Amino acid sequence: MTDDAVYELAQVNIARLKAPLDSPQLKDFVDALDPVNASADAADGFVWRLQSEGGDATDIPVFGDSWLIVNLTVWRDANALTAFMYQGRHREMLARRREWFDRPTEAVTTLWWVPAGHRPTVAEAESRLLHLRTHGPTPYAFTLRTSYPAGASAPLLGDVPEGLGCSL
What is the mean pLDDT of each run of 10 residues along the chain (168 residues)? Predict the structure, then answer.
């Protein structure tokens, strides 16, 4: 069995809303959530996404900030993730993100390898993102631009490097 079959790629991205989710300013974003999530669910290489009973993750708290929303997914590999990100409705949403979200001043997206079948928690995603912000890309938390091979992310399963907490 290869490392690629033993590991899957987790990704998290967060965004700070410019307005409440029920506002007219975010109507197009909210209306697109179900179709974009359905296209992700059907995408080649998609494994899992965090969602609440509402079918998305917009009501799941991240970093204790009600203006932040989280997208936490697992993919077969980086090729599957990028193929989804830059096509169809998701690509259209990316092009309009500045209408709905504040421009980030620090890293809002990170990737890491997880053992196949592991489903990361929000706390795990927060620790990976904080690690990236503090240390830059490493095998523990990296970016599409600076990535590491499957199995390189150590420690695994939510072990947080010494000195890192899960708050901003």
Answer: 76 97 96 94 96 93 96 96 88 90 95 96 97 96 93 52 38
Q: Token match 């009600």: residue?
A: 66
Look-up of token digits 């993730």: 81
**CATH number for the domain formed by residue range(s) 3-135:** 3.30.70.100
Q: Which pLDDT does position 116 carry in this prediction?
A: 95
Rounded Cα distance, 62 and 163, in Å = 19
Closest by CA position to 125, among listed 90, 83, 85, 74: 74
Give the 3-state secondary structure of residue 166: coil
For tokens 């706390």, name the residue: 123
Whole-angstrom distance, CA of residue 115 vs CA of residue 23: 39
Give the H/E segment covering residue 69.
strand 68-75
Tokens 């993750």 — which residue?
A: 57
* Cβ pair 73, 10 in contact under 8 A: yes
CA nearest to 112, candidates 98, 95, 127, 90: 127
Asked if 71 and 12 count as a contact pair (C-beta separation under 8 A), the reply is yes
Domain ranges for the chain, please list them.
3-135
Of the candidates 74, 94, 84, the one whose C-alpha atom is nearest the C-alpha of residue 32 is: 94
Q: What is the pTM of this model?
A: 0.87
